[in-house]
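tool=predict chain=A
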Amino acid sequence: MPSDRPGRPEPLPEPLPDPPAEPLREPWLRGIAAHPAAPPDVLVRLLDPAAREVWTVLCEERDLPPAVVDAVLAHPERAVRRAFARNPHVDPAQRGRLVRDPDSLVRASLAGGSRVRSGRIRPLPDEVIEALLTARNDPALNTHVTANEICWELEASQQIPLSFRRRLPEHANPELRAYGIRSGGWDRLTREQQKALLADPDPTVREAAQEAAHRASRDLDPEALAAELPEQNGHHRQHLLMNLPVSRAVVEACLAEGRNLYELAYNRRTPADAVARLARDPDPEVRAAVAARADIGPALLEELAEDPDEKVRRRARIHPLPRTWAQRDVLDHAVFHSFGCACAFVDAHAEQESGWYTDCARSEHEDLRRIAATYRLLPAEPAALLAEDPAADVRHALAAHHPLAPPALVLDAFLARPWQRPHLLALPNLPRTGLGHLLGHEDPEVRALAAADVTADEPPVRLLSDPEALVRRAAAASPLLPAELLAELLEDPATAEGAAANPGLPAARLHELLDRLGVPG
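tool=predict ok
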């Protein structure tokens, strides 16, 4: 029988903690998004629109567990999928799963690749490249970007490996055989391959081959160039005069007017007698271009090696005979025209010039040794020689490019070359331990690297009050910090982001932080 006495009241639920002040919201979200040990169920919560502001950090700036990748790929928001499509940290095959995405902007982001171009770009799988190159515009789908524009993005992204291009002449898909021709591959083909494509059973391939053969034939005709050459100065005129055969009339007109002489000196098809005249031009840039030529004779080279201009002398002396034009191009790019930045361009000629790089490693010229140091396939013996090179620029170039560079040398390059640090931080042989001696370094990026050392004798407590946010963030993320201090750091806007990314924070605590932020679970 029910009693009329009032029963014991039900206990009230525990009050939820007050939501964090606005200064803590973004630091917590950013820290959790970057947390290296956050389990998939935590990271998936960040895909909710309530955490929209860290979608880029989560989807583009870190690797992700398979379960989170699946959630990203199925996410209804374009911004999530686009960020993942550009992620350089995940396997390209995982990014490639977006190749059939219904949104053209997502597919364009996949084709364009990472927005951060540091280090070696990993190519997309062949089947993904094929799908992008053979896609059609579908009016039923988002067409902010056309299929052709996506192909242009892919071409510029460096995600098509040379091995894929080599297989195109014999590809089973005629559309890709034609693409291989039209993308500038005709000159790289053997005569047998060219003949086969000219007789291809597919009319589209034959047409592309005939156009390429006609263009190649025209490009070998000096009179065709003379007819096409614009009178007005500009990039098109420069391109023609630097790369195609020049007629005698064009050469004489340029010499008489003192016009485009550098372009003539650079052009490998300029007649020998004109080259000899250009070697005595008053402009040292013209003489230096002559000194770089692969077809220069010993007598003229010896004369230019004693030129009154230092650049001309250097250009003549640095590169002994015999030479190739490919070597000339590498030197032009890496030493004389790019302020010493020898980079991925070097690899374009690596296969045919691999022995040359080994010779460069033993050269007396620092510039040649530095070029060798940028060749990532340089054998171990010359690489070890360059690791001990007397020139710091040579050693640091090896550290930035060669997988066998000693860790101590990579760290030395990190200290000496601030502009290369984003690339060096991605290298596996950059030391992450034994950095205690750098905790007081004057450069904040170096202090931040040292603060992340998990083998330090003591936690980097003194760096928690560093004037630089980068250093405070790295120090607060150190797993060496005690739990009670970490709890304090989470409530301080100056250290909250690093503390939220600290591996010492367990999954339950991460969920609790997201609950306080109002991010649905």
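Residues 203-219 form the longest helix (17 residues). The chain has 33 helices and no strands.
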